[in-house]
Structure formats: structure tokens, C-alpha cells
Specification:
By secondary structure, the protein is an alpha+beta fold. The chain contains eight helices and 15 strands. It has a single domain, classed as Jelly Rolls (Sandwich). The strands form three sheets. Strands 1, 2, 3, 4, 5, 7, 10, 12 and 13 form a nine-stranded mixed β-sheet that branches. A four-stranded antiparallel β-sheet has the order 6-11-8-9, with no helix packed on it. A two-stranded antiparallel ribbon has the order 14-15. A hairpin with a 5-residue loop joins strand 8 and strand 9. Helix 2 packs across helix 5. The longest helix is centred in the middle third of the chain and has 28 residues. It is globular. The chain starts with 19 loop residues before the first strand and ends in a 5-residue tail after the last helix.
């Protein structure tokens, strides 16, 4: 079996900008176009841990409506928003207030507040007793419908991309589909408020971190600020067109692939252009089901697995404690 090499950024590489791919070339393209998409997806994630996706299934009108709803929600009084805090659930559902979360090992909190939407399960599903129930703000009746719809669309896009990765990773076509069926995926609805006066100068909107999950699917935010750390240690701006999806590798996929597909460090910096306005963002974190085992894939093992086997649930709980969302 072919052994895949761990990612390294060549000095001669021309990939100095995150590549933009058309998802339609995989879902509707010819055999050649599908093959080219798979190659570019794998190469982009290997080189940078990020790609940008256009021609996807998530409707632009739905993204615009979602951002309008977010602006209305975060304009509500603080006490109203705090009534939807669910600390016993590790803040995995409902509202998380400003200054609660921090990056792993960071001494200061991030400058953000957010809301978590999780999976809706049918009665009788055994995971219904495992996952926290969703919380919905009564002040905005359209909130539940629109974000449930967005959750489903982003998950569909994620399913397609994970399927496309099965060929270069030399696993069955349904390998990831079996792991993510009824997975504990999360849609995070973020608000980065204007930077308050007198804030600790070490604080940024989102300090340098890696994501926990398999892949993150991030609709283009309402303002710039997202940066990734390139393989040579430089910070690169991730500039994307409106209504595109930014995709990055999380720690769970990095563990599976022995860092062949690395979890890339990224951050959201404070405004640099003299403006100090709100920024809204809606990342979808694609997770496996709780019992999925994160074991190094044979094609990626090389001289040996770097990480011990661990279930998706145990790894998630470990990371939630590290970032301040679970005691």
C-alpha cells in the first residue's frame, strides 16, 4: 500500500494563496473534472490545511438571511441573551457570553460571543440522551427554521468533501459517512463586537488555535480578519469572495491522517483598517458520532502512528476543558 507523506511546504511551491475550488466539478462534473477536484482538494489541504469552495449547495440568499438574523439577535439586551446560557452542557448549545472561551493554553479570553446549534434527533434515537437539546430564542421565531436549514446544507457540503478525500486516503467511499452519521456536529453563530476600550492588549477576537473536529466549513464572514499560519511560520490573510465557503482541517482529521492532512493554526485578528465594527461569522464544525474511533489510517502510518487511539467523544471532552467550556 502506498504511504502518504506528512505535509511539508516546499520553498518552491507556488501555493502562496489558499486555492479556490468548484464543488460542482465534483458533484456534476465529468470523471476528469472529479479527479482534478479530488487532487486539488487533497493538495490544498495538505499544503495549507485550508481551501475555499465555490459553486456549492448553500444558497446565497440563505446566508444573507442568516447574517441578518444574527445581527438582530446580538442586538438584544445582554440579560436576554444570557437567559439562554447552558453551562451544564459545556456551552455546546445555546448562548456563550463574551469573554468565556479562550484558545488552548492562552492566558486571556477571546473577544467574542456565540450561539451553538446542534443536531436535531428523532425520538428513539439512542444519541438523544447523549447530545444536549437545542435551545431556541423565542424573541426571533425565524431563528430555528433558518439555522436548522443552514446546518443541513453545510453538513451536506461537508459530506461531499469528506467523500472526495476517501480516494487519496485509500479508504472505502463511505468511510467518513459512517463516522459522521448522527455525528455531534455544531453550527457556531459568532459575533465579534467592536473592540471595547481598556481591553487587555493581549486579547484578540480569536487567538491562534486549531479546530477540534474533522473539517470546518465556514461561510465567508461579514468582515476580514481571518488568517492562517503558513508552513514557514508567516501569517497569511484568507481573502474569499462573498458567499463562498472556507474549509479547514481539524485536529480529529489530523489524528486520523497522522498529520498528512494537518490541522492548521489560524486566528481572527482585531480590526487593522481604522474601523472598529462588529464581525459576524458562522463556522460549521463537522464531528463524528461519539463512539467513532480516531485511529491512524494505514495509508498514513509511515514509520508509526503519532497519536494514541481515542474516541471522538473523549477527544471532544478533553478539548472543551482545554478551551474553558467544560469544567
Amino acid at each position: 500500500m502506498r504511504t502518504l507523506e506528512t505535509a511539508s511546504h516546499s520553498e518552491n511551491s507556488t501555493l502562496r494563496k489558499v486555492p479556490t475550488l468548484s464543488l460542482a466539478s465534483y458533484t456534476k462534473g465529468t470523471a476528469g473534472e472529479r479527479s482534478e477536484f479530488i487532487d486539488k482538494l487533497f493538495t490544498g489541504l495538505k499544503e495549507y490545511g485550508f481551501i475555499i469552495l465555490k459553486d456549492h449547495n448553500v444558497q446565497a440568499a440563505d446566508l444573507h438571511k442568516a447574517y441578518d438574523i444574527l445581527k438582530n439577535f446580538y442586538a438584544l439586551p445582554t440579560e436576554v441573551k444570557k437567559s439562554y446560557i447552558s453551562p451544564k452542557a459545556g456551552f455546546q448549545r445555546g448562548y456563550t457570553p463574551f469573554g468565556q472561551e479562550h484558545a488552548k493554553d492562552s492566558p486571556v479570553m477571546d473577544l467574542k460571543e456565540f450561539w451553538h446549534v446542534g443536531r436535531e434527533l428523532s425520538e428513539g434515537n439512542p444519541l438523544k440522551a447523549v447530545y444536549p437539546a437545542n435551545v431556541w430564542p423565542s424573541e426571533l421565531p425565524e431563528f430555528q427554521y433558518h439555522f436548522s436549514k443552514l446546518y443541513a446544507a453545510l453538513e451536506e457540503a461537508g459530506d461531499v468533501m469528506l467523500e472526495a478525500l476517501t480516494m487519496p486516503l485509500e479508504v472505502e467511499k463511505d468511510f467518513f459517512a459512517k463516522m459522521t452519521k448522527d455525528g455531534n456536529s455544531i453550527l457556531r453563530l459568532l459575533h465579534y463586537p467592536p473592540i471595547p476600550e481598556g481591553v487587555d492588549p493581549r486579547c484578540v477576537r480569536a487567538a491562534a488555535h486549531e479546530d477540534i473536529n474533522f473539517i470546518t466549513i465556514l461561510p465567508a464572514a461579514t468582515a476580514s480578519g481571518l488568517q492562517l499560519k503558513d508552513r514557514d511560520g508567516t501569517w497569511l490573510d484568507i481573502d474569499s469572495e462573498p458567499d463562498t465557503l472556507i474549509v479547514d482541517v481539524g485536529d480529529m482529521l489530523a489524528r486520523l491522517t497522522n498529520d498528512v492532512l494537518p490541522s492548521t493554526t489560524h486566528r481572527v485578528i482585531n480590526p487593522q483598517d481604522g474601523t472598529n465594527q462588529s464581525r459576524y461569522s458562522m463556522p460549521f464544525f463537522m464531528h463524528p458520532h461519539p463512539d467513532a474511533m480516531l485511529s491512524c489510517l494505514p495509508s498514513c502510518k509511515g514509520t508509526g502512528a503519532k497519536y494514541a487511539d481515542i474516541t471522538g467523544q473523549d477527544f471532544l471532552m478533553q478539548r472543551l476543558r482545554e478551551i474553558g467550556l467544560l469544567k
